[in-house]
Design a protein that fits this description.
The complex is a heterotrimer. By secondary structure, chain A is α/β, with parallel strands linked by helices. Chain A is 36% helix and 25% strand. In chain A, the strands form four sheets. A six-stranded mixed β-sheet of chain A has the order 6-7-8-3-9-10, with helices on both faces. Chain A has a six-stranded mixed β-sheet with strand order 16-17-18-13-19-20, sandwiched between helices. Mean pLDDT of chain A is 85; it is low at 243-252. Chain B has two domains: 29-137 and 276-290, Rossmann fold (3-Layer(aba) Sandwich); 139-274 and 306-317, Rossmann fold (3-Layer(aba) Sandwich), CATH 3.40.50. Chain C has helices at 2-33, 36-52, 74-81, 83-99, 106-123, 129-155, 161-180, 190-196, 206-224, 227-236, 238-243, 248-274, 286-296, 308-327, 332-349, 352-378, and strands at residues 60-63, 69-72. Chain C has a single domain, classed as ABC transporter involved in vitamin B12 uptake, BtuC. Chain C is mostly helical. Classes of the chains: A alpha/beta, B alpha/beta, C mainly alpha. Chains in contact: A-C, B-C.
Chain lengths: 500, 321, 379
Amino acid sequence: MQEECLLTMRGIVKRFPGVLALNGVDFTLREGEIHALMGENGAGKSTLIKVLTGVYQMDGGEIKVDGKKIVIRSPQDAQDHGISTVYQEITLCPNLTVAENMFIGRENGPMVRRKANEKRADEILNKLGIPARSTQQLGDCSLAVQQMVAIARAVDMQCKVLILDEPTSSLDDKEVQMLFGLMRDLKSRGVGIIFVTHFLEQVYEVSDRITVLRNGELVGEYLTEELPQVQLVSKMIGKELEELSSLGDAEEKNDKDAEVFYEAEGLSSSEAMPFDFTVRKGEVNGFTGLLGSGRSESVRAIFGADKVNGGTVKIKGKPAKITRPIDAMKHGIGYLAEDRKRDGIIAELSVRENIILALQVMNGMFRPISRSESEAFADEYIKVLNIKTASRETPVGSLSGGNQQKVILARWLLTHPDYLILDEPTRGIDVGTKLEIQKLVLKLAEEGVSVTFISSEVEEMLRTCSRLIVMRDRHIVGELTGSDLNQTKVMKTIAGGEAQ
Amino acid sequence: MRKYRSLLLVGLLVVASLFVLTACGKDKGDGKIKIGVVNNPPSESGYREANVKDMEKVFSEANGYDLKTFYSDKNDDQLQAAKGFITDGVDYLLISAAETTGWDDVLKEAKEAGVKVYLFDRKINVSESLYEAAVISDMAKEGETAVNWLLAQNLPEYKVIHIQGAMGSDAQIGRTGALDAQFASGKMKKVVQQTAGWDEAEAKKIVESVINSGEDFNVIYAENDGMAKGAVAALDEAGITHGVDGKVIVIGFDCNKWALRELLAKKWNYDGQCSPFQAQIISDLIKSGKTPANKIIINEEKGFDATTITQSDIDTYGLGE
Amino acid sequence: MKEKMKAFFAAFLRLCKRIGAFFGRVCKNLMDGGMAIPIIALLLLVVFNLIRDPGFFGIGIQHNNDGNVVLAGNIISIINGASELAILAMGMTLVTAACGGQDISVGAAAAIAGSAFVKVLKASSSISGGTVVLAFVCSCIVAMIFAAFNGTLVAVFKIQPMIATLILYTCGRSIAYWINGGATPTVSSPIISGIGSFIPGIPVPTPVIIVAIMTILFGLLFRFTSLRLFTQSVGVNGSAARLNGINSTFIKLLSFIILGVCVSVAGCIGVSRLGLINHETLLIDIEMDAILAVAIGGNSLGGGRFRISGSIIGAYVIQMLTITLYAMRVSSTDVKAYKAIVIILLVVIGSPVVKEKFGKFMTRLVHGRKRVSAKGAEE
């Protein structure tokens, strides 16, 4: 047993000012296994990874590689001990070639042996079956291939331990399969892989073992085949599952007779092809389709986020002109953007400032919300949405992903919108928060707010939406309601089986 | 939005091209003496401004000249312009060079083409045979005149605040030398010697700091009028009298009209001048057709005393307005 | 007796640790707030000067040459002399926050504004209060036009602020020269000297009062508009700000125009101090000092969160440093070198690396306290 342990971490403690991020966590990685590290946001996954890769210094505990105790002071140390990491955001240089990216920063001496490097790179790419050429510019490759090049780089550095931090979050299904193929290949070569992800299905597809963390503590280590998915979720969120399943069947609300709130005809923008779309009061609908099918682009056109090119829009039956976000906001439309970091949070500003932002914009420059009022708003929504933050003045960037998302939700809820567009509100956040957001959507609809909900997890959409608009190749190809709302039907429509 | 952007761009271009156009074009006359002047740009200083205006006034069409001018503070541009004037066939080339080196070839070229060269304001490191005459200022003499005037005041003791110009400039070196000699001989006491780099506000700060330290002084020797004005502002705020009947003697340089008026009002004591008026001397030489025996002609420097200055002095010798 | 001594000693030690921990927390809070650097720098300079010359900060009351009772002394020189810098630093803070870059043309623009001010004053036969107001308004408009030019390049054409303002930095003083007709015009009037030095009956230099007024105006601006929130949002994350309905082009342009007003005020003060406009030397090199004041004030030069008060203190730090060096008779050619050394120190101390180390140290102090108190409970 002992000799096949590649990496053991014992009693790891990491303390941040005011927070105990890791409290005596154990973790073991064996040779040739894929080990999923699971937990909600804030459970301590990334802290553990960062301790292992030398980004953070641990305050207690010990790390052994191949049975030998080691000290990791910097990412370089980690690399020297054969621990490599591929992060969620690709950290390579898109304007360099594949070969340059694979060998950058590890030249021996000042000379760069370009030819030799390219040959070596091609060998590795071939060996791992990565569809890229060494002389290609990295930026020209698809995201998945870029991800794989990052892995190839790690592998070539003779890594024994490979850490994949959310590697699949920006990949589509086919690309995920390619990545999994590569992971299995590496596994057969004896590399130990630590796999961090939010996608439960992927865990079950590829991993051998699962370690679950919660609130900085170890919950346990399990063999994947012995731990049913439901059990895993309950261990992650520390609750039993009745609550989860109660949400299972969304009330089949029939709101076909409700009044129409929003109506677009031939709406198009610089990014979206012309489309027609209607929203009824209090309905939850959704846009679905593969990445790049135009679902995000369409809702952005509704909000005026891109340059609107044409089409007519009516709100509550009256013609309306929406060319800029502020126009949409004035008509009671809110939009939670797909990319939380880029288009959502104002990271350096406090939770309070982030919450009042949209309302303040609607009030205009000369009617500022007073300090006490804004504090009251912030406190209210921190409580209502159960936002976990040290205080309302904490910079929102230091919150976990799920809580950041809640802050943005609070921002829009505060404007009391009639129609809320949520583009991927549940991406990259933990299971518990996902459920909370789904519940909130249904509650809003009950209160008469219309919601458009986009998620790459079809199941989630089936649970919340009463109508699904299916897109393919930037066109609407179908609309599903009632009994048609099931996984098979959706998949068929997306794939284009409907046409025949 | 995009439409406005391009409109804006067009607007900017039009404004820019207008600037370029106005900088072009001048006519030539015939039967007149053709003069080419290569000088530093008038924006360089009040001195240069007066110098340029004086040239334009003296070498006017009414006086029988056809004047072409080129202003730059870059030696290479000046060399190009001088070559251009020679090919244009000017009769006389007048040069105030940006740098003292690199002029041999051009002056030889001029000599071969029969163009007579006069240097003004600044000398160039070339053989004297290459030019007719050099009408220049002797900066050191300017300082000496001022210091001699100061010595003639027969103060029981000299405690001097010395505010220098930008270090290394000709004016600073010339105006500092004579005073440094006095400091070295012990005849005058150096309270503080600081450069304000021609900056009025900086000069005020320097004097303020001496006042705040409580140290005594009775002379302010500022190497230009602006800095003298800054120094005086510090005195005024501290309630220290200055000028003819005051506690502190104020010395400035350049003879700006406004500074000379301060002299006339007896608020300052002395203003020295580095004369920018070389055009008349050169014009006289050209018209007489004679080559002076001594090729270096030192332009007469003026210095004004508050007790003797008159309004007509201001009108004649004052710079600016 | 011995035991008593022991107990007393232990209590004393605990007290010391507690005091240490308290200051640790205070420092840490300040550090997190970003105000530590300017305040510590200011305190160090004060202490240094008090050791060097205990009378350095003495304030005297005396009559000036116009017969007014006025305050005088180094501290007045510092506060008075930093006025233009402080005002420019305020505007610069806003531009930095909104655009993530700096306007390096403020000195040149101030020369233009000052020239316009003098031009209007000279155009009228006699200088009355009305003329001065008119001249100031004209100079303000001129400065705002040039600021709008800079702002348009930055906000509409998306040119890097330093590059965009390089244009005016290069040609601004030539434009001022052109306005002045090549000379260094002077104006003399009791009103002008009142603005530049002292108003009869008020012993505080007028520029200091103007800084106070500007500070209050900025305070009111942030109190009665949501400019602070919008500017910070645009500076931190322009894309998100846009999707929340903020017109970031307008906010950036506005920040430049507000800086334009500051430039005009600073230029007019500079001119009024001596009643003379020298386009070559008016507020020369002040752009670098203004940017430094912003940096010393704990503001990120990359934009985002900002604190105007920090920049104002930064301006006074720079000025106190200059005056201290002058008082030490350091040659003014060397002053720049000394200033550079001090500023390197300040910037290094303010860097994230040092901050983190310092933060760890403070955490240990605070934790040290906790351990002690835990022991105390056991006893």
